[in-house]
Write a structure and sequence with these properties.
Elements lengths: L2 H18 L9 E6 L2 E2 L5 E3 L10 H9 L2 E6 H12 L8 E6 L3 E7 L2 E2 L30 H5 L1 H13 L5 H6 L8 H9 L3 H25 L3 E5 L1 H19 L11 E4 L5 H16 L1
Parallel strand pairs: 1-4, 5-8, 8-9
Antiparallel strand pairs: 2-3, 5-6, 6-7
Helix pairs in contact: 3-10, 5-8, 7-9, 8-9
The protein binds zinc ion.
Zinc ion (ZN) binds next to loops.
Length: about 280
């Protein structure tokens, strides 16, 4: 699919949604768009690994059709804005969020403002180096946090265990070949106390906990918000381990502990965050 076609599909979808909601297009003050990729301060998509939109004049195409202000942001960043506006961190000013999807997305709010760095490529917390000799990451580096703790890394390790002859409840549901492992399969294996899967997920979560130690040292946030499909499925298993690791850090012994919490809004976080972005940027 070309960027132009993808853009057309989204525009048609949006037109239908506006029709369905019986909204007069002239009353739309702004449109906010969340994109899985690196978005510059002025809304240009610089990179989008999973959907070919980089370099396409997205904002112009939307403006031409809808004749209103268009704001674009990274989806994980918008998710944190949503949680900050209507969700779990409403009164917080210094927040780190980690989105545990296929990989690990990150977002940072400092002094009440989203921090995206010089070019919009900041806060990619899944790609901080945890182990310089670690496994290869999708980004080309070695030993990134998500190469240890992302769902794709968990999947890689489970596949490896299965290939080397270990038995898991996941193997049974595969009926032969290796398949994609969804978050729900992980939570099912955890609830059945599957030894192989529990061990692999525990290792991943311990790695994530150590990533959180680093973020705590870098930003001294009031809270770290964890969201995404893996959290929704396995949050009950993940949270206590992360809390234990982060709260054992002797450096912060005499300070109030960094709160480790689960996001509240699920998929709505990005949508609400897009509205929050329009509200704040629309004033400028
Ligand atoms: Zn990486």
């Amino acid at each position: 699919s070309t960027p132009k076609k993808i853009c057309q599909v989204i525009i048609e979808f949006l037109k239908d949604a506006i029709d369905d909601a019986a909204v007069d297009p002239r009353n739309i003050k702004a449109i906010g768009i969340g994109v899985p990729g690196i978005v510059s301060h002025d809304g240009n998509i610089l990179e989008s690994p999973n959907i070919p939109l980089a370099g396409f004049p997205f904002v112009k195409a939307f403006q031409k059709t809808f004749k209103t202000r268009i704001f674009v942001g990274n989806d994980v960043n918008l998710g944190l804005l949503g949680e900050k506006w209507k969700g779990v961190c409403r009164n917080s000013k210094n927040i780190i969020s980690l989105f545990l999807g296929t990989g690990i997305g990150g977002a940072i709010v400092l002094n009440g403002e989203l921090y995206i760095g010089e070019h919009g490529a900041g806060a990619e917390l899944g790609h901080v180096t945890l182990n310089m000799n670690g496994p290869k990451c999708t980004c080309g580096n070695k030993g990134c946090l998500e190469a240890h703790a992302g769902r794709w890394a968990i999947e890689r390790d489970i596949h490896h265990a299965i290939r080397s002859g270990k038995k898991t409840v996941i193997t049974e549901s595969f009926k032969g070949g290796l398949k994609r492992i969804k978050s729900k399969m992980l939570s099912k294996a955890l609830s059945k106390k599957d030894r192989v899967v529990t061990h692999i997920i525990t290792q991943a979560v311990v790695a994530l906990g150590h990533g959180c130690i680093s973020f705590n040292h870098m930003f001294n946030p009031e809270m770290i918000v964890l969201g995404g499909g893996v959290m929704e499925a396995c949050g009950g298993f993940i949270l206590p381990i992360i809390r234990k690791i982060v709260h054992a850090d002797p450096f912060f012994k005499k300070l109030p502990p960094c709160k480790i919490v689960e996001s509240q809004l699920g998929d709505d976080a990005v949508i609400l965050g897009a509205v929050a972005m329009c509200k704040s940027k629309g004033q400028g």
